[in-house]
């Protein structure tokens, strides 16, 4: 009896600890409960598998980009070998994040190959034309004059003929963009690579150009990068050769270097890119350059967005489901097992507290599937109690004393309970290892639930029952065994 | 007390015929679904597995929301994506007296999905962004999720089989697993039929429910087999009789456990979020079929002629 008393104090201690934890460390809610967006990013590698280092490198760059975006409380985690998950809580539109994150942002500085001036001029002219066409298209589309694209179509096919290029896209806008990309790539190919790249940057900024409404992006090189930049500009100063700034293989600006720099090159470690940027474009480029380029390209393969209102509705609905489930199960147990049912209700309540406390301790982020796992595990927690109580009933029926029936009921149900819990646990374990984020939540709560229910249904129930049976008045046989069973 | 007294020996043939009948029905559903539906799959795979875009959003209406025909709305969505084929593949429904819109389209990127909401607002009036729920899943990821779910299912079935084989002797393990596959096959078959008849789709939570059912069903069977083994050692009565007694001794427990597990699931079906609705349904079905197979089917395998 002394040992049992020890258990009783231990359980009360655990309960107070659980309540303390829950008050001081509130539960973490998933996005489906508090609202927000979740983006799954897939690393793309043509050959071979993505290595751990590559994944980490991509994460570092994306981390910087997300921070520079100024998104509060965002969370970026790796998922498996080649995926990342970005969580943006609250009302933040995933649109901007997706634009900034998706680009590789590989910045290069190249010098023009000798004898390509004519070719460059030709391409620049075509680029000028295509930019005009794109602007015209957007204007027409904004004003909903969708039927009047014939002019653009014929001009586009002219450009295509001179370039000897046919775009892959089927629709007009896609064709325009494809052609522009093609031209920019062709221009980039007229230039030689240099040692200077985005890695040599220490900062990036943006400002509005003085002459018009366009924005330009300011680059600050490291000491080393500044020297390289000076060398490069010196080598082409005053010549026909131009300096091109290439982003992701596309030339975004070409500029000549004046002859006044032929002695020292452009020193000071500063440069600007002016490529007809809008304010938004400039900001995106700034963020990308600050974060550095991605070692591997990424693709956004999944986006979930849940409004805040829907999230709080989900919480309320789940609470209703959980509480009504608990109450009905409790009533069922008390109707069937009387005092024993009452004991199982108390262990169920303990079970609920321990579960939630563990969630805040580990911590487990509570999501909708997670809550369903918790609710489902209520049923499984009761299962162990039912197994034990059925045994106790049988022992009582065969004429054993109450205390002996309780003891052997707990003892004999043990092996079945452990077996059953292990099979469920196996499923949870596999789900947790292999499942997606969404599924992991379910596996975690169900798994934790199954483990805790072993403790509550075996130990807590027994302790409470033993405690109750110390009172003579609670040892009445008919409090345990009804003459006619329910059902 | 009669309710808990089954005559297993007498009803053995009935049980087998009933199970065979259910399996036959499931098989018909799966075959029909594979060869005679637009999706040509054993089961109607949802957007988790094939990719797509799902949007649910509430409208902001003064009193009652105006009636609009879904076709009319779809007509006006042709500018959402550059893909002109999109309009033919949009599925749009109004729920809750035209207050809630639910739209399924093929995969859109984030920009296009934003266009979709903006376009919708011009057609049907303001929407409440706070009530928004969108999911975009790329087709590549879908394939991966499908593969992932299938592996999880196989690995965990293998692990459970392994545990059971170590725990019991081979005969018991084999029949427990047979009962398990019977349960999973029938639940799968029911969802094949639901796909054919009501266009219900299965998502990754369905795979999760199958796994949970597997754990649960084996658990139930193990409890009964444990009882049978114990009684075969202790009691000195005829073999078939012992099995029947053991089943009846465990019957109350299995029935009660199923009830206490079904109760929370029922509350989830009634009060829970819509995204858990079909998940709870498939779990409930699995638990009902699982209890049937553990009480009636699995022990019947053990009976001797």
Structural class of chain A: alpha+beta
Query: How many β strands of chain A by DSSP?
Result: 11
The CATH architecture assignment of the largest domain in chain B turns out to be Up-down Bundle
Order of strands, widest sheet of chain A? 2-3-1-11
Name the CATH superfamily classification of the largest domain in chain B. Multidrug efflux transporter AcrB transmembrane domain
The beta-strand count of chain B equals 4
Give the distance, in angstroms, between the N- and C-terminal Cα atoms of chain A. 36 Å
The secondary-structure element order of chain A is HHEHEEHEHHHEEEHEEEHEHHHHH
Q: How would a textbook summarize the main sheet of chain A?
A: 4 strands, antiparallel
- In terms of quaternary structure, the protein is heterodimer
Number of helices of chain A: 14
The low-confidence runs of chain B, each spanning 5 or more residues with pLDDT under 50, are: none
Strand order of the largest sheet of chain B: 2-3-1-4
Q: What is the top-level CATH class of the largest domain in chain B?
A: Mainly Alpha
Q: How many domain regions of chain B?
A: 2
Any idea of the CATH topology of the largest domain in chain B?
Multidrug efflux transporter AcrB transmembrane fold
Bulk shape of chain A: elongated
How is this structure best summarized?
The complex is a heterodimer of chains A (487) and B (305). Chain A is 59% helix and 16% strand.
Plain-language structure description:
The complex is a heterodimer of chains A (about 475) and B (about 300). By secondary structure, chain A is an alpha+beta fold. Helix content of chain A is about 60%, strand content about 15%. Chain A has helices spanning about 1-25, 30-35, 50-70, 95-100, 115-140, 150-165, 170-190, 225-235, 280-290, 310-335, 340-360, 370-395, 400-435, 435-470; strands at about 35-45, 75-80, 85-90, 105-110, 190-195, 200-210, 215-220, 240-245, 250-255, 270-275, 300-305. In chain A, helix 11 (about 340-360) packs antiparallel against helix 12. Chain A is elongated. Chain B folds into 2 domains: about 10-45 and about 140-300, Multidrug efflux transporter AcrB transmembrane domain (Multidrug efflux transporter AcrB transmembrane fold, Up-down Bundle); about 50-135, Alpha-Beta Plaits (2-Layer Sandwich). In chain B, helix 6 (about 170-200) runs antiparallel to helix 7 (about 205-235), helix 7 runs antiparallel to helix 8 (about 240-270) and helix 7 runs parallel beside helix 9. By secondary structure, chain B is α+β, with helices and mostly antiparallel strands. Chain B has 9 helices and 4 strands. Chain B is about 65% helix and about 10% strand. Strand 11 (about 300-305) of chain A pairs antiparallel with strand 4 (about 125-135) of chain B, so a sheet runs across the interface.
